[in-house]
Amino acid sequence: MHDGSGRILVQGLNKSFGPINAVQNLNFSVEPGSVTGFLGPNGSGKTTTLRMILGLVSPTAGGAFINGQPFSRLPNPATIVGAVLDSQGFHPGQTARTHLRCYTAALNLPDQQADQVLELVGLSSAATRKTGGFSLGMRQRLALATALLGNPQILILDEPANGLDPEGIAWLRGFLKSFASTGRTVLVSSHLLREMEHTVDNVVIVSRGQCVYNGDLEQLRAAQQSRVLVRTADPATLVETLRQSGIHAEYLPDGSLAVPGTDSKTVADLALGAGVAVHGMQEENLDLEQIFFQLTTGQYTGSAPQGPPQPGGPQPGGPQPGGPQPPQGAAQWGPGAPQQPSQQPSQQPPQQPPGTPPPGTPPPPDQGQGYQQVHPQQDQNNQGGNGGYGGNA
Ligand SMILES: Nc1ncnc2c1ncn2[C@@H]1O[C@H](COP(=O)(O)OP(=O)(O)OP(=O)(O)O)[C@@H](O)[C@H]1O
Ligand SMILES: [Mg+2]
């Protein structure tokens, strides 16, 4: 018998696909009454984990529990968990309403429930349109409507913001927050922290299948937001001086120091007091996106195009007009596709983590950048692995 808590518990979860360790020893819980973001770059194991929570993939080791039970043991699961793993699985010839009525019939729910969830997700006006003509954002909404049919206690959504326009994102944010505010549970994945930062209360951040942060988003912001970078003639003395004042400094590969959680005046005063010459100092404020990069850096880092096209014509060795453009942010959309609302052109995250040398630069002896986590080497083979409509049926 399930405990009705609305809690998702992931314990020692592992999944290997042959030599690929997609998920490694994941432990976290998702509590009711809040929105939890499950964040990580491409191929970091998010979908695989959600599929294991939903009983669609068997773990190699460990387990996942909803209301104290594996998904497969939940009675009438559509009333407990609504899930969307993929918004592609609609019959193109069916209307939105017919699609939903297939599910109401299968779930033994009243037919009018279909129109109620269409209204909830803002698709009432498209009820009689065939899903084959739906945009990506409309399909996301219809998939969410399907997940809501059983009026579930828990929502599990894999990248639900993909394809939504700015208004759609704002609507999704409001919807998830109000869903959680009624004491229900939301677990929502994304590869863009910035997309989720105003939606989620807690985050579980994964990289290469491993958890690199689990906790309150505000604490993450507060703990790692700023640091002072110092170049000094005598780093060892400055490290010791700072240590005596309770300030921890870290060596960077170029011999300078990174001093988190303080300001340049404090560092300068302490250096002066110790008689240490300072050659340069810079305060670095990391926004959440940069923190995210620092935590998850390097799984599938691409290389930059060989110089952007110039207005006057192609540059020698550069891309041809119409060729690939420099990446802007973590995701780009094809022509005519919706914009990612949270990507502000003036604040694009770097395509590589801060401090990453340009392609071709020999690696420094120590890659540590202060915030960087150490990851074991892992496969570089990203074959996707999503698939199937993870609704309630
Ligand atoms: N069925 C499968 N067979 C082989 N490898 C798989 C399978 N499913 C997933 N993988 C691998 O597991 C790793 C994690 O994939 P997963 O789809 O869980 O990542 P993700 O975090 O959801 O990525 P994305 O942001 O691109 O959706 C990848 O290396 C992927 O290639
Ligand atoms: Mg995925």
Helix-strand layout with pairing:
Elements (H helix, E strand, L loop, with lengths): L7 E10 L2 E11 L4 E5 L6 H8 L7 E6 L14 E4 L11 H11 L5 H9 L15 H13 L5 E5 L7 H16 L3 E6 L2 H4 L5 E6 L2 E7 H8 L1 E7 L2 H10 L5 E2 L5 E4 L3 H11 L3 E8 L2 H9 L97
Parallel strand pairs: 3-7, 3-8, 5-6, 6-7
Antiparallel strand pairs: 1-2, 1-4, 8-9, 10-12, 10-13, 11-12
Helix pairs in contact: 2-3, 3-4, 8-9
The structure holds adenosine-5'-triphosphate and magnesium ion.
Magnesium ion (MG) binds next to helix 1.
If you had to describe this structure to a student in words, what would you say it looks like?
This protein has 2 domains: 8-220, P-loop containing nucleotide triphosphate hydrolases (Rossmann fold); 225-298, Alpha-Beta Plaits, CATH 3.30.70. Mean pLDDT is 78; it is low at 309-393. 25% of the residues lie in helices and 21% in strands. It is built from 10 helices and 13 strands. With 393 residues, the chain is an alpha/beta fold. It is elongated and about 80 Å long. Helix 2 (96-106) crosses helix 3 (112-120) and helix 3 (112-120) packs across helix 4 (136-148).
